[in-house]
Amino acid sequence: MHPRTPRSTMFVSTVSGPSAPHSLGVTLPHEHLIANFATPEESDDGWRRLGRTRPAAATEAAFYGAAVGIEMLGALNLGAPNRDNLRLDHELLAIAEVGEFGRLGGGAIVDQTSIGLGRNPGALRRIADATGLAVVMGAGWHHPAWSPELAERSPASIAAQIAAELEVGVDGIRAGLIGRVGAIDPAQDDERRLLLAVAAAARQTGAPISITRSATIADTLAVLDILEAEGVQPSAVALGDAAALLARPEELDAVLARGVYAQFDRLGDIPTILTEVSDHDIALGILGLAARGLAGQLLISQGVRRKIDLNAFGGNGYGFVLEQYLPYLRMLGADDGLLAALTETNPQRWLSMPAREERA
């Protein structure tokens, strides 16, 4: 098991209000419903700040600016830059796509779209109302590279705003977790300050945190050390993009030894020659970890983030885990207990927050 500090009253904060954790049902812990991952500043500096290469040739620039079409899917799956592909900006389409997850038996979906990535609290509430699903919204900022204005703010002021989004809300709509926080280099002052702010807000509110693994295992472990030193319970932390660590099991073991969740959150991507870890390899990894008694620290999700991830654009949509991946895991030997842990028990426990009067 992977316990949080026992509390008599725990709840999950959804955009529609507080919910009992067990009421969520099957939960996707990392998705994006309305988001914008396109480079926010169309300048050489803006592209460079995100570590991206700006399309230079006329044909590349034209492709980048074109609306997604079926003739583009091959290039897009191979990573060709395209602004429209990086925008999930159609609310009615989101309702239809999320609704399919509900029809398959899903109950809750976590939108990890933080400030800087096009978060839209009002749209999330409308999607929840239209589909009848529980939707959990992320609080705070993704990364200083996406939000240069953070350079002018102190960790205390950043933490105060994150806490307010969790306790008061954004236009009355409360967040239910902090993140998704991007990959942090703790040696960079602006990134470390954001990390300290995240820790302070989590300590104040009891909110869970989702954070991307850092570029190196040393930095990843340093980030986890800082969070714990600042008073964050390891079991409140989900480390995203964990699949890459399956190829380096000693690194994954070091992460799991800290007591955090490993978030396998790129399931259902169309495989290409660029695929580093296949869904099959992830399935075998999950089964191996479960056999070692680590099933309680695992989370799975699709991580929909592009138009081509949606059913309407040829992708597997928000229903892949339920419709395809759970049957595949079962075929490989997963039992009911493991499947329930991956889709219900673990995400519900991770998302649970203590009532204000019960916080330590």
UniProtKB/TrEMBL annotation:
Segments traversing the membrane: none
Q: Which family does it belong to?
A: Belongs to the metallo-dependent hydrolases superfamily. Phosphotriesterase family.
Q: What is the protein name stated in its UniProt record?
A: Phosphotriesterase-related protein
Q: Which GO terms describe its molecular function?
A: hydrolase activity, acting on ester bonds; zinc ion binding
SUPFAM superfamilies for the chain: Metallo-dependent hydrolases
PANTHER family reported in the protein's UniProt record:
PHOSPHOTRIESTERASE-RELATED (PTHR10819), PHOSPHOTRIESTERASE-RELATED PROTEIN (PTHR10819:SF3)
User: Keywords of this protein's UniProt record, alphabetized?
Assistant: Hydrolase, Metal-binding
